[in-house]
Design goal:
Layout (H helix, E strand, L loop, with lengths): L8 H4 L11 H29 L5 H28 L2 H22 L4 H29 L5 H27 L4 H17 L22 H13 L2 H31 L5 H23 L5 H10 L3 H7 L4 H29 L5 H30 L1 H20 L17
Helix pairs in contact: 2-5, 2-6, 2-7, 3-4, 3-5, 3-8, 3-14, 4-5, 4-7, 5-14, 6-10, 6-13, 8-14, 9-11, 9-14, 9-15, 10-13, 11-13, 11-15, 12-13, 12-15, 14-15
Length: 422
Amino acid sequence: MATTPAPTESKSRPPGTRSVLRDSAFLRLWAGTTASGLATWALPFVLGLAVLQRELGAAGLGLVLAARTAGFLAAVAVGGVLADRHSRRAVVLWSALAAAAAAPLLAVGLGRSLLLMTAAAALAGAGQGACRPAFQALTAEVVDPGRRQQANAATTLAVRSSTLAGPALTALLAAFVDVATLLLGIGLLWLVAALLPGRGGPAAAGAPDAPRPRRASLRAEFVDGIREARRHPWFLAGLGALTAVIALGYSATSVALPLISRDRYATEWVLAAATTAYTVGALGGALLTARLRPRSQGWVAFAGLAAYGFAPLSLMLPVHPAVVIGAYAVAGIGIELFNVPWFTATQREVAPDKLARVSSLDFLVSYGLAPVGLALIAPAVHAFGVTPVLGACAAACFLVPVAAALVPTARHFGRPPVRPGS
């Protein structure tokens, strides 16, 4: 199958001068994306409250969360193909409605049927997985190329802010309502995600929603998306580096930070402060990338991704807690220095009619290997000790992004940007 040539709209269309925050179409999409992100974050937290209130056992919690992850991984690739075949707005609508329908099923099954909760969690994960690539592709339709980095940064800011404020708000609500009601609230968030975004605007040119004359199988179209990804060496390198950092660095710190906080510092405060610092740092990174336009955008992004290595490095050494907290803040800044340009470059460089499939490949690989990393880190810590495992993971976080930055086209995440007067 012939590949679709890379889009040229960023050369032919001048960058937008009007703030994306004044664009009603983007604001509707932003609100829907934020609602879906908040609902995605809230479900594990609310189910954790159910464990505290003895409405769900620890083993049951693990089973339900595993089912959600399985549903996500099963649906994300299919969702990417459907979002390139049909209206991306329709894919967002139906996938978010599926996730919304799962919420009352979870509430009904709470304390009554673990089987029902497991099936509902798989449905929720499937809705979440199917809508993620569609949201990514819909952003490219709604926002013109010159403002996409600002749009992606605004979305990241909203999601990170929700993550920061969400626990306190949920804990406050839990003092007045039960867990079943909180689960219904998650369903309402998914309804907002389903109903609020509008259709793509003028930027949708080149990303047709009309049915194709010849329809290939889902598998063939997903494979065609893989071919499109392979056309971009920077994308494959970035996906490999991101996966290494998530599966090794993030997994290692997720396991080690609670242990270090308890055993070295004898307090839970370090755990809470470090995770909060990471989110605050990510907020700062998103604010920075909203306006940052470095000449070598890819190299800066890979440097930001490598900065996550400071988190496991800080846990290796008997340092003051402030050093650990500072390392996590730096890691948070760095992760958004990578994420926002990464999403923007994907929206710019990938053929528009294959954007959702390539985005689904991104989520499938990076999210899919994260549980593998978590499953392997704990036995590795038991076999070799915390310090060697953290050292190996820190080295991977530093070295893999550096190697990825040496790949052709990685310096600019594609072709060099066109500058005025050039």
